[in-house]
């Protein structure tokens, strides 16, 4: 029997542990893991530097500050200076995601991967949530800041993330209708959430394999 094809796309609230869950799934299911790694692949394919993509990462309003960038953010062999747009940068990332998805089992975190791979029958789209107190505690620990500061970080970054997703997909970020499964990690804890998702993903992959 051929190896089951598995593609996992993870959307996540800030501080929910979505990235950690993604890495756990990748390890358990022998998948390549792509988060910011997509920025490297997009840079490699496009000729732009990785730091250039990093400044655009999941931020629809990036081009408001475009002209404050230094020259080193664009590589010497770049041939796009007069065809520059935010949409073209998104397309480079989309192309990188599409290419990676054809090369084996993989987990993608964010970057509208669920929309980019919407026609792929092997894709499983998951949204990770958590209770607000849990998320505040995680962000406060990560940034070594107060609860109030952590809450502001959550609101600011999630606004950018939602605007980016909504703009490019025409859907609503976090809306259950956009995903196969939405999970609150506080219900079971990280390890048991991972185990439950592994079972769901394997069942879906097996169903696809029988078609």
Report on the architecture of this protein:
The protein has 9 helices and 5 strands, in the order βαβαααβαβααβαα. 51% of the residues lie in helices and 11% in strands. The model is unreliable at 62-84 (pLDDT under 50). It starts with 6 loop residues before the first strand and ends with a helix. The longest helix is centred in the C-terminal third of the chain and has 23 residues, at 147-169. It has helices at 18-28, 37-46, 50-56, 86-101, 113-116, 132-143, 147-169, 185-188, 190-209, and strands spanning 7-12, 32-34, 106-109, 123-129, 181-184. Helix 2 packs across helix 4. A 5-stranded parallel beta sheet has the order 2-3-1-4-5, sandwiched between helices. By secondary structure, it is α/β, with parallel strands linked by helices. The protein is globular, with a radius of gyration of 18 Å.
